[in-house]
Amino acid sequence: TQLLEQSPQFLSIQEGENLTVYCNSSSVFSSLQWYRQEPGEGPVLLVTVVTGGEVKKLKRLTFQFGDARKDSSLHITAAQPGDTGLYLCAGVRGEYGNKLVFGAGTILRVKS
Amino acid sequence: KAGVTQTPRYLIKTRGQQVTLSCSPISGHRSVSWYQQTPGQGLQFLFEYFSETQRNKGNFPGRFSGRQFSNSRSEMNVSTLELGDSALYLCASSSTGVTNTEAFFGQGTRLTVV
């Protein structure tokens, strides 16, 4: 059983469409991070959200941390083919040290 | 500033053998974590080292071990390899020992066990 449930698992959309990826848990996290991973590469950090209710924007990407710090969402506006990749959410549970709990990931494909 | 370097990039081993993977963190980073990534299980935490000490450990059998050197470089060892150990092994480095620190990942080592 995944501690962090990500949905959807797969998403195939046309260029210009909007999409939202969800990351949910029954556990509280001290922070939550979003990564993007391309084939043959390691995950690259996109954003870290720390405060409940926090919203962060990164160009066309909007990240939100739930008020109770149990869930998060990633919204992409006007998706482009360059957004294609595996999106991963990862939670930090406040234990001492750097131990990330990852969701299963969302594979996004944006067609031109 | 050089990123996280993992060597080798690709490795093919036979069941029963052992393997050692290497990770050089970003200069100045003292925390190194290791993760296993498979299609079925996703990314799973193996262990974390900070200042040469193992600080956190995931739920993997004792065949998986690691260590960290005084220059923060880390190695991971898997003994008595099984087919199910085939995976992408990723290491991540972080600058401090405090939680919520950003993790920077290497490109990974693709291990295939035949």
Helix content of chain A: under 10%
Q: Given the helix and strand composition of chain A, which structural class is it?
A: mainly beta
Q: How many H/I helical runs of chain B?
A: 0
Largest interface: A-B, 28 and 27 residues
Ranges of chain B with pLDDT <50 over ≥5 residues?
none
Through-space gap between termini of chain A: 35 Å
| Topology order of chain A in helix (H) and strand (E) letters | EEEEEEEEEEE
The tally of beta strands of chain B, per DSSP, is 11
What is the arithmetic mean of pLDDT of chain A? 92
Unreliable spans of chain A: none
Describe the overall structure.
The complex is a heterodimer of chains A (112) and B (114). In chain A, strands 2, 4, 5, 9, 10 and 11 form a six-stranded mixed beta sheet that branches. In chain A, strands 1-3-8-7-6 form a five-stranded antiparallel beta sheet, with no helix packed on it. With 112 residues, chain A is mostly beta strands. Chain A is built from no helices and eleven strands. Chain A starts with a strand and ends with a strand. The mean pLDDT of chain A is 92. Chain A has strands at residues 5-7, 10-14, 19-24, 31-37, 44-49, 55-58, 61-65, 71-76, 85-92, 100-102, 106-111. The radius of gyration of chain A is 13 Å and the shape is globular. Chain B has 114 residues and is mainly beta. Chain B has no helices and eleven strands. Chain B is globular and about 35 Å long. The interface between A and B is medium-sized, with 28 and 27 residues.
